[in-house]
Specification:
623 residues, alpha/beta, seven-stranded mixed sheet, 23 helices
């Protein structure tokens, strides 16, 4: 008598053969199956008529079919979920069977059967129009124009030329990607359903008042000698105020973030627009239905300027996204200056004005170039162009500025100015500062960057926070070892104010009886910060012209106070809910999943999306 497993195979072959015989076009395959069946029957000496009467029972040590429902409250099921996120499918099956003697784990099928369908994408890039972001040198650490320009490569070191070449070669004519099947409404329903399953309060999909934060962010996932794999992630998170106040969820966590689409490509205008247009149209329709909910767009500075195609942030006249302030105007007129935001209606007027001028000029004047148009935009159209998303699709009043990147960018600016001051001091002062101050909280790598005048863009969030936490040490050293010039006094005041501002920007849940006072104090400290900054790090050396004012500086001084008050009045929450720390962590989780579970063949994004769904649904750590 053959084993039960062999009997199962024979039964399957008989069924397949009988089905295939119904199709004349597959008669040859049917003959092959018949031959296989006869061969197996002759070798196993089993009567074909006995097959139908054999009851199939579970194989020994096989729990398939014994666990029919996943219960995340059971310890063994929690263990299974953690194992799933640490290994491949085959690895999970091997561990499950080897552990079956001690604990009964659910099958891989049961763990993953509730995954939404992931559909592959093939996106055709739009006809290339150079982005206003990549047409300008970027002050805040973004890509430079040279990444897309081979003509200027010969002036750079060999390793930089290789980097440029890899970036160009990695840009595909057609972009591959993947998304959860459905549209924006379905993604919102998935997040609401998860909150319902977790038993979190005030989420039933009907009451309204949900806060939805959407973010698009790109990151390099792999780099080899022949290729750079960059992935652009489209992610959302949903919560209500009570969840933050009761600490059921945290704004900086990635566990509440659903990544619903990923595209393999770089953050450029011609690749991004085809990938985002449908999404923003679906979101607009959903906003009109869910009028009681709040929808915010939270992107880093580079992505904001890419999506809007606003006059670039290092332009001379109108570089700031939401207002028509001139560069430096808010610094020199710190106390009296009024930053007037451009209304939604005026955004649309300027958008259409740019389109009309572009269409007219390009028809009549062959010499009218993109650069000339952007020069006109900067001087005469409030910095607003028509190359980006229409204000109806991306309402500018729904944009929120990422406090995480803002804190990092401004801290790096202060670190750079601190080093500039010390470079004018003696060698002994510099050596003592490194040994007595920096060595206490930085390691050899950070000191190498400091001493060799390298860019601080490689410093990550926790390294930035450590510097801010040790500002007191820096102030004490300067007080004891340096002559107290006006510049040094002003800059030390700026560092002390920045430590307080940095802390306020991190507040998410609040105490209502004290937060109003903190907001008022925050606004006072911002004015003082800009006042001392106008004589130090916000102006070119020896002047008070304010020309070193960056996009994040202006946003902090003139946008964040208004956003803070609106957030308090609408949600009773702190401005710290608008930080991309969780989305950056999601990028790290995505890199980790791709590194561990992808063979880099075919559409690598599809499997990656499945893994990220598991992280979201089961709230497991994937870093």
């Amino acid at each position: 008598m053959c084993s039960i497993r062999t009997t199962k195979y024979l039964s399957a072959i008989c069924v397949c053969a009988s089905v295939v015989e119904e199709w004349e076009s597959c008669r040859e395959l049917s003959l092959v199956l018949d031959g296989m069946k006869e061969y197996i029957l002759s070798k196993t000496k089993v009567d074909e008529n006995e097959l139908d009467s054999v009851a199939v029972i579970p194989v020994e040590n096989d729990t398939e079919g014994l666990i029919s429902e996943l219960d995340e409250n059971k310890k063994e099921h929690k263990l299974a979920i953690k194992l799933l996120c640490e290994t491949t499918r085959r690895g999970y099956d091997r561990m499950r069977h080897s552990m079956n003697e001690f604990v009964k784990l659910p099958s891989y099928h049961l763990l993953t059967k509730d995954r939404p369908k992931i559909v592959p994408l093939l996106i055709q890039p739009m006809e290339r129009i150079d982005s206003t972001v990549t047409n300008e040198n970027e002050r805040d650490g973004g890509e430079n124009e040279e990444f897309l320009n081979f003509e200027e490569m010969q002036s750079y070191p060999d390793e930089y030329e290789l980097e440029l070449a890899l970036r160009r070669l990695s840009q595909q004519k057609e972009l591959i990607g993947a998304k959860i099947d459905g549209g924006y409404a379905e993604y919102m329903n998935l997040m609401m359903k998860k909150h319902m399953d977790k038993g979190r309060m005030n989420i039933d999909g009907n009451d309204g008042g949900q806060i939805v934060i959407d973010s698009i962010d790109g990151a390099e996932h792999r780099k080899s000698k022949t290729d750079i794999t960059s992935i652009i992630s489209f992610s959302s998170m949903m919560f209500v105020s009570d969840m933050i106040q009761t600490k059921e969820v945290t704004a900086g966590s990635s566990l509440n973030i659903l990544t619903w689409q990923q595209v393999r490509g770089t953050e450029t205008l011609h690749t991004m627009m085809p990938a985002v247009k449908e999404y923003f149209e679906e979101k607009k329709a959903y906003r009109e239905i869910r009028r009681n909910d709040f929808f915010y767009d939270l992107h880093d500075g580079k992505m904001l300027y890419l999506l809007t195609q606003h006059s670039a942030w290092n332009r001379k006249y109108k570089p700031f996204l939401l207002c028509n302030c001139l560069r430096g105007e808010g610094v020199t007129g710190n106390e009296e200056h009024r930053c007037v935001k451009i209304s939604h209606e005026n955004q649309i007027v300027s958008y259409q004005r740019s389109r009309r001028r572009w269409d007219l000029k390009t028809r009549r004047d062959q010499s009218y170039t993109l650069k000339k148009h952007m020069d006109w935009i900067d001087q005469n159209n409030n910095g607003i162009s028509h190359f980006g998303l229409h204000p109806d699709l991306l309402p500018r009043d729904g944009i929120r500025f990422d406090t995480f990147h803002m804190k990092c960018a401004l801290t790096r600016k202060l670190i750079g100015y601190l080093r500039k001051i010390l470079l004018n001091q003696s060698t002994d002062i510099n050596d003592n500062f490194c040994s007595e101050v920096l060595r206490k909280f930085w390691n050899d790598y950070h000191l190498y960057v400091w001493r060799n005048k390298k860019n601080f863009s490689s410093f990550v969030g926790n390294e930035i926070a450590i510097f801010v936490a040790n500002i007191g040490l820096i102030q004490d050293f300067f007080q004891e070892n340096l002559v107290q010039t006006n510049e040094i006094k002003d800059f030390m005041k700026a560092l002390g104010l920045w430590r307080k501002i940095f802390k306020f920007l991190s507040i998410t849940y609040i105490e209502r009886n004290t937060y109003l006072n903190k907001m008022e104090q925050f606004e006072v400290e911002l004015k003082r910060f800009y006042d001392v900054g106008s004589r130090t790090f916000l102006s070119t050396h020896g002047t008070e012209n304010g020309m070193e004012e960056t996009f994040y500086c202006h946003a902090l001084r003139y946008y964040i106070p208004d956003i803070t008050r609106v957030t308090y009045e609408r949600h009773s929450l702190g401005v710290g809910i608008f930080n991309m720390q969780g989305f950056e962590r999601r990028n790290k989780e995505s890199k980790n999943c791709m590194k561990r579970f992808s063979n880099n063949k075919g559409n690598i994004v599809v499997n990656n999306m499945k893994r990220l769904w598991d992280v979201f649904r089961h709230e497991v750590n994937a870093v």
